[in-house]
User: Fold this.
Amino acid sequence: MPLSPRLRIRLGLALLAALLLFSVFGFMHAEHLSFVDALYFSVVTVTTVGYGDIHPSSPVGKILATVLILSGVFTFTIVLTSMTERLLNVRAKQERLQRLNMAIGSFFSEVGTELLSSLSGMNTRLETVQDRLAHCGKWKERDFITARKELASLSFEAEFTREDLVRLRTHLHEKTPFLLRILENPNMAEHEQFTELMWATFHLKEELLSREQLQDLPDTDIRHLAGDIRRVYKLLLSQWLDYMHHLQKDYPYLFSLAVRTTPFDAAASAIVRS
Assistant:
């Protein structure tokens, strides 16, 4: 298994430090230099800057300098290459996450917000969620973190009618082509939470489509569907919070619209009135 750039940097720096330490004591002994002069001489040798007022005069010192030049340049090159690769990897990952955030934004525009609104209508503790999230437009970063922790531990009991399930099934079925395009995004693997949400949503859709009729279901099946709805709702709620946090930091104009159309404020409206 190839070493990661981070591990190569650490190993290279450790090797470089050991090489410098060895050369410092070697030059102190072979050239009778002070610690400071030996350190200076070792550094200018490794970095191939060249010699100034200090240079090896003894055979042992010249051999040691030759070994230090060859091994130092090799080690320094490894460290520099690994650091460059790591910086490029970080930049590439940021670009992939940026594209994935665009996909998440499309998901909420096309499916997620309406789905969140529908499932919220089945939540018996909706008032608690509304009180917590209705004014997220004024939140600071710590408020998003706190809310995420609070809502993760919030119990959610779903109550729904046959008509609720029919509307939910119709909505998910109509959006299947769009959801499949989201899954085809090659950057999905970069976001485990969103991937889990997508699979949970697909599972709920398949559960609903697998039943020929959604009336007179036994209590055992009602509880099973309630569990699937609960899973999607909690994942969707968590992802919505992360998405709102992302918009607030990077796209305030999109955040403004998302706040004005939040599914947790009964008076929400896209129309700007003040």
